[in-house]
Amino acid sequence: MSEAVEKATRAHEAAATLRTASDHQRSDAIRRAADAVERATDRIVEANAGDMARARAEGMSEPLQDRLLLDERRVGDIARSMREVAAQPDPLGRVLLGRTLASGLRMEQVTVPLGVVAMVYEARPNVTADAFSLCMRSGNACVLRGGSAAHDSCAAIADACRQGVEQAGLPGDAVQLIDATGERGHAETEALMRANGLVDVLIPRGGARLIQSCVRNATVPVIETGTGNCHVYLHATADPLMAVNVTVNAKTQRPGTCNSAESLLVDLEAADVLLPPVLAALAERGVELVGDEAARSIAAAQGVPMGAATEQDWGTEYLALKMSVHCVSGVDEAIAHINRYGTGHSEAIVTSDYAAAERFLAGVDAAAVYVNASTRFTDGGVFGLGGEIGISTQKLHARGPMGAEALTTTKYLLRGNGQVR
Amino acid sequence: MSEAVEKATRAHEAAATLRTASDHQRSDAIRRAADAVERATDRIVEANAGDMARARAEGMSEPLQDRLLLDERRVGDIARSMREVAAQPDPLGRVLLGRTLASGLRMEQVTVPLGVVAMVYEARPNVTADAFSLCMRSGNACVLRGGSAAHDSCAAIADACRQGVEQAGLPGDAVQLIDATGERGHAETEALMRANGLVDVLIPRGGARLIQSCVRNATVPVIETGTGNCHVYLHATADPLMAVNVTVNAKTQRPGTCNSAESLLVDLEAADVLLPPVLAALAERGVELVGDEAARSIAAAQGVPMGAATEQDWGTEYLALKMSVHCVSGVDEAIAHINRYGTGHSEAIVTSDYAAAERFLAGVDAAAVYVNASTRFTDGGVFGLGGEIGISTQKLHARGPMGAEALTTTKYLLRGNGQVR
Asked: Which residues of A touch B394 (CB under 8 A)?
């Protein structure tokens, strides 16, 4: 039996106990795990130092190294965000629907845990604690496979979580970490993706390649997350200053995140007014620009460098200081372009026209659609959902930021006195 | 381009129009389609006669022939159930959540269509009309692949649906039927399962082989439906008469349906009292019995024939007048057995003990859990959900009977006045 299947089996068994664990027990397990993480700070930082040394030796890029790094302050942040999840209201046992059927059967639809949540992620070791907390809050066991580069850090955190769970009187097997290092790591991940009957959902969190590999290869249900080819569309009636602020924020505030904008659309009829200040502000912040012919001629007149955009650019998530610029004939063409090239993550219009705003909100097919605001707000914390296990860009089960509620399913309970059909 | 991909592309384009179609337009399309179905009764019955003749020549079994058959009355039933779906309240545009974020952004989470729903089913041509109606009610385009034996019947119904949609001023491309006949049928189905970006969800409806093939081979999101290895558990405190009524109803009222019971569990301590009348009633109705040693010795003492159950029996959905019988030590063993061998469909306990009832409701991991009632009630119509496109036995997105609401997703709308992060 592979390690992944063995651990998924143990998680599946632990899930049977978690199914009937109380609100208090589940919160308590997270709080005790947070305490254990804090107590283990030295051990976690030491394990991380080992991961960091290997990563540096293997030439990991600076931004990835920064994601991998844990110091005392960051471990404290991890514990704090665990306690925030512990304090969230219970997502379980909510009655969504209740009625008495014609036969006299009393029916209730209540929220219950999914069972076993598998999570595959990359170099950020804090995801280990986030995923554990949200899974435990919602009564789920978790099987975690972090990036191989972060293995020792993840293992130290998972150990502490396990301790907390056991101290709360729940099965430590509710937290499973799969060794992703070495040759075997890949085979184990494949086994996890195909553990039907043991894994209720697989959530990949990371780059587009990781996510697409899960979507293509998994036979267990997958929730696609995070790929964000987001647009800002400047309607002809946009306030020019707001157009600059929203575009610059959406593109440059944190360009490596999935809710950052990659592409700027602008109404052709107003492009000569709206584009120049926006392009100047972007260029000033070091954003590389590519665009269609109309945009390039405006940029050229201004002396702002802009390469020629290819068909591929419209569909590319740069995750960097680069942006494509495309002129459109109006809101309908903007919606069509976004629905064709976007990834259904976050899309924004800047406009002062009521009808255009409502048409954009209704017509764009995405998890979050904004009027006169930056796409950067799409986030579980900002939306008030508590922590976030990922941002779903698919439509099934959960769409947009996923908190603990997204890790629940429902069950119909029917109480009768001998009813038959 | 394969036929499936071409038709999914057209459905995807039609879905963009449906996304903003009004409640009235979508209901109207279904009502006009129902009228068109009625007007086409002769043509549908004639097409069905051709399918029936081929099915008989190819030796299709009597029960399957009955599922395939359409006469004037059954076409009338199809139109009536379409009108019932048209009369359902609009599942779209419901605001599930609304708040103002710290930044002043006003956030709403509203229900919206999934987009394109693909459905793969077998010999029942009426599923064509059911699937179309529920998809149209919820603003979705549909790509339907019925069984090859029912092709001409399905095509005649789909033609009428398309007419109705066009008469309502919506794109006829919202209804697509894929030719499932001949060699190419299999390849087309495979192409449909892998049409990522065009198909938002695939719902297989039919036998376990069809469903497992979709789960294993599809790369688009799938909702598993319908496999039902359901149990009736007789707790030691069960009322003996109720035990007989519930078991007989759950097993024999319509043994070919997924919500029928396949396995009987009974507390060992009361088996000599509870089992004899139940076994006698089952045997009288021609139910073939297999059981464990304890059950067999009780059956033998009574002169009721009971074969030896194998491990495989516990996991088998007979869909026939056959039932396995297993003695357990109490409610916890019953729950563990059900969670191990069941398919998460419908499970029932018969008991007069409050604690046992609540423990069973909480501990069993299934879409519908019954106390003192037959498993046969699990049905979208009976649950008051309107029509039903299938019964989900997975936990993601929808669990249990799926009506039009299960064919929606959500979208966050955020209205601001220039907010940036």
From this structure: 200, 221
Taking CB atoms and an 8 Å cutoff, what residues of chain A touch B414? 368-371, 373, 377
Find the residue in B nearest to A214 (Cα): B219
CA angle B228, B229, B232 (to 5 degrees): 115
CATH homologous superfamily of A230-377 equals Aldehyde Dehydrogenase; Chain A, domain 2 (3.40.309.10)
Q: Which of A200, A46, A10 is nearest to A125 (CA)?
A: A46
ipTM, two decimals: 0.93
B370 contact A CB<8A: yes
Q: Is B409 in Cβ contact with A245 (below 8 Å)?
A: no
Could you tell me the residue ranges of all domains in chain B? 3-224+394-415, 230-377
Q: Does B95 touch chain A (CB under 8 A)?
A: no
Q: pLDDT-derived band of residue A420, with 50, 70 and 90 as boundaries?
A: very high
What are A341's two structure tokens?
């090239």
Q: Name the residue among A173, A119, A409 with its Cα closest to residue B365.
A: A409
Residues of chain B short of pLDDT 70, as ranges, are none
Six-digit token string for B197: 């970006």
The packing angle between helices B72-86 and B23-39, to 10°, is 170
- Cβ–Cβ below 8 Å for A201 and B411: no
What does the pLDDT read at residue B388? 86
pLDDT digits (tens, 9 = 90+) for B319-361: 999 999 999 999 999 999 999 999 999 999 999 999 999 999 9
The pLDDT assigned to A211 comes to 87
* CA–CA gap between residue A45 and residue B417 (Å, rounded): 43
Chain A neighbors of B369, CB-CB under 8 A = 411-414
Tell me the two tokens of residue A277: 């200040």
Note whether B253 contacts A: Cβ–Cβ < 8 A: yes
Average pLDDT of span A109-118? 97
Dihedral through CA B371, CA B372, CA B375, CA B377, nearest 10? -100
Q: Show residues of chain B in contact with A16, CB under 8 Å.
A: 336, 339, 363, 365
Those residues whose C-beta lies under 8 Å from the C-beta of residue B217, and which sit 6 or more positions away, are B190, B193, B194
A417 touches chain B (CB under 8 A): yes
pLDDT tops 80 at residue A1: no
Give per-residue pLDDT as tens, B96-148: 999 999 999 999 999 999 999 999 998 789 999 999 999 999 999 999 999 88
- Nearest neighbour of A368 by CB, restricted to B16, B376, B412: B412
Which of A20, A244, A365, A385 has the most B C-beta neighbours within 10 Å, making it the best mutation to test the interface with B?
A365
Is B413 in contact with A361 (Cβ distance < 8 A)?
yes
What CATH architecture does domain A3-224+394-415 belong to? Answer: 3-Layer(aba) Sandwich (3.40)
Q: Looking at B302-387, which runs of residues are DSSP E strands? A: 307-308, 322-328, 346-350, 368-373
Neighbours of B165 (CB within 10 A): 28
Q: Which residue has the tokens 């299999």?
A: B186
Contacts of B180 (CB under 8 A, 6+ apart): B145, B146, B147, B148, B151, B188, B189
Tokens of residue B336, six digits: 């563990």
